[in-house]
Write a structure and sequence with these properties.
The complex is a heterodimer. Chain A is an alpha/beta fold. Chain A has 11 helices and 13 strands. The chains are: A alpha/beta, B mainly alpha.
């Protein structure tokens, strides 16, 4: 492995005609778990597909474990890719899909059958493996794609939005599976549009927006950047004025704004835990009756906006 | 952390070269043949393939009802016309369009081609494997259909027909027709595989080629050679009268016709390899 760099992109750009996919991306993905995060349309899938050789860069070079992606015989022996595409060769069962992948790897039929069985068991699909994929739920399709990607025991695993469409229980199971694969020495490069889903999992994070890498580094650093930013919370209650008066007594409050209908309060605070403690206290004392509380900025777009503003 | 940690010591995969390609080709051919036999379009191809034999069977029934006594010479001429016009120019042409354009274009439309592209398989190997699968499918449809046409023409004609087919010139003709049908699948297959890779809608260039093949008899000798049907017709055991407007041309000798078709198929496959090597998968979203 060249200098502990699994994947290297040097000044990579990809244009679809005149439409920008990614622009001037230079990255070196080290061993461990790295997450590529960005809103829909930010270029994550383009970047993943460039790494896997499904797309060719308009400019720049990509290398995976020292090989260019257009050498599939070298690259895909050690790389597994679970794509975002939710379509499968027609008429196959889950087991046949995984078995097909292993036979294309060059495994003999008995070895392919054994490895397929192990991979299917690993993702918890043994009971449904002989059913046609067409009848699978979204979560089952996601799992069987994962089995297909890990069956040949790759060293590096690319996962494009692997948590999409999974219910909370399935998400927790899949995240646990990623952790256990990583603990066994598998290196994972995954994409997601939900930062908080991957920040507990990743060693490093790469943030993308509109085709550009806007931030990258250890997850702690990115989290600290987020912590420094005021959180926004919307509270619907019967006496928002009384709540506003108490909120303003807290040092960390940046802004508190009453709604026009006098049934809500918009708060920006640097200490979200402190705010929630205050809210609980006021509500428990019967001073206000809370109808609803919702964070107003937990979507990842807001985080990028903040990061970009900060960089500018 | 070392990436070598996950290396499988029981890895049974060949390192590369022919041993690997052989396994990969076998895997692709088996899955493609199975997958394409199951799809609805295959039934249409099969119906097209058996249509000439069905036509000949209908004709035989009419002959029996009319109590006409056809000679084997007449039957041979009818078979030649049906084979060249219905089977080669129409059924096999459209059948090969359906089979070979679908091999790549169909998978792009179904968004499933990446399963092959994500395997440690050279795309040239994938192309050859898919082409072989297409040839197997086309032969499965058109070789039995050719044989069926021969059987339907000669066997019901009584002892004379059976003698002609099994012990007379009919046997050599049968071998020739089967060879022409097999070569037709090889030649048209390569053409339509390339079209499926180059054109978003391969039906448009296929329609243009159909026109070119159909007006082949009107073309001067030099242009006749730029077609698949010219070589196939040259190999047919019984020539067919092409009408008063046809421009006569010398038939190409069998070795040249066979070699020419195989070389044409090889050239088209090389072009298809160049195309598939540079093919990007953009299914339409990012």
């Amino acid at each position: 492995m060249s200098g502990e760099r699994l994947i290297e992109l040097a000044d990579v750009s990809k244009f679809y005609g005149e439409v920008l996919g990614v622009n001037r991306v230079s990255l070196a993905i080290p061993p461990g778990i790295t997450s590529l995060v960005g809103p829909n349309g930010s270029g994550k899938t383009t970047l993943m597909n460039l790494v896997a050789g499904l797309l060719r860069p308009t400019r720049g070079t990509v290398r995976v474990l020292g090989h260019p992606p257009d050498e599939p015989e070298a690259v895909f022996r050690t790389l597994g890719y679970c794509t975002q595409w939710d379509s499968f060769p027609r008429g196959l069962s889950g087991r046949e899909l995984v078995d097909l992948g292993l036979r294309l790897q060059g495994h003999s039929a008995p070895a392919a059958a054994e490895l397929a069985e192990q991979a299917i068991a690993r993702v918890g699909m043994s009971g449904a493996a002989d059913r046609r994929i067409a009848g699978y739920s979204k979560g089952m399709r996601q799992r069987i794609k994962l089995a297909h990607a890990i069956a040949h025991r790759p060293q590096v695993l690319l996962l494009d939005e692997p948590l999409n469409g999974l219910d909370p229980l399935a998400r927790a199971e899949v995240i646990a599976l990623f952790r256990s694969l990583a603990a066994e020495g598998l290196h994972v490069f995954l994409s997601s549009h939900i930062l908080h889903e991957v920040d507990l999992l990743s060693d490093r994070v790469v943030l993308m927006r509109a085709g550009y890498v806007v931030a990258e580094g250890a997850i702690r650093g990115v989290r600290e950047e987020m912590t420094a930013r005021p959180s926004q919370i919307l509270v619907r209650c019967d006496r928002p004025g009384r709540l506003a008066a108490q909120v303003f007594e807290q040092n960390h409050t940046v802004e508190a704004k009453l709604h026009d209908d006098e049934r809500g309060l918009f708060v920006r605070t640097r200490d979200v835990d402190g705010f929630y403690r205050l809210l609980n206290r006021v509500a428990a004392a019967g001073e206000i009756e809370v109808e609803a509380v919702a964070p107003a900025d937990e979507d990842v777009n807001a985080v990028y906006e903040y990061l970009i503003e900060d960089k500018e | 952390m070392s990436v070598a940690a996950a290396t499988d010591t029981r890895d049974s995969r060949p390192a590369g070269g022919w041993p690997l390609w052989r396994r990969q080709i076998a895997a692709v051919v088996s899955i493609e043949v199975r997958k394409n036999l199951l799809r609805g379009g295959s039934l249409l191809v099969l119906l097209m393939a058996v249509a000439p034999a069905a036509f000949l069977a209908l004709r035989w029934a009419i002959v029996v009802v009319a109590r006409r006594d056809e000679t084997t010479a007449v039957e041979t001429a009818v078979l030649a016309q049906v084979f060249q016009i219905f089977l080669l120019r129409t059924a096999m042409f459209f059948g090969c369009v359906g089979i070979f354009t679908h091999l790549f274009r169909g998978e792009i439309l179904q968004r499933s081609l990446h399963y092959y592209f994500l395997a440690p398989m050279r795309r040239e190997v994938l192309l050859v494997a898919k082409y072989l699968a297409g040839v197997v499918l086309a032969w499965t449809a058109f070789l039995p259909a050719t044989l069926g046409s021969l059987v339907v023409v000669y066997l019901p004609s009584g002892a004379a027909g059976r003698e002609y087919l099994l012990h007379g010139p009919g046997l050599g003709q049968a071998v020739a027709y089967l060879g022409v049908a097999a070569l037709g699948c090889v030649g048209y297959g390569a053409v339509f595989l390339l079209m499926g890779l180059w054109a978003r809608n391969p039906l448009l260039p296929a329609a243009a080629l159909l026109g070119w093949e159909w007006i082949n008899f009107l073309l001067p000798p030099m242009l006749k050679r730029l077609s698949v049907i010219h070589y196939l017709q040259s190999l047919c055991p019984v020539p067919v009268d092409q009408g008063p407007l046809a421009l006569p041309a010398e038939a190409t000798s069998a070795p040249v016709a066979i070699l020419g078709l195989l070389l044409l198929a090889a050239l088209l496959l090389v072009l298809a390899m160049r195309r598939v090597r540079r093919l990007e998968l953009v299914y339409g979203e990012d």
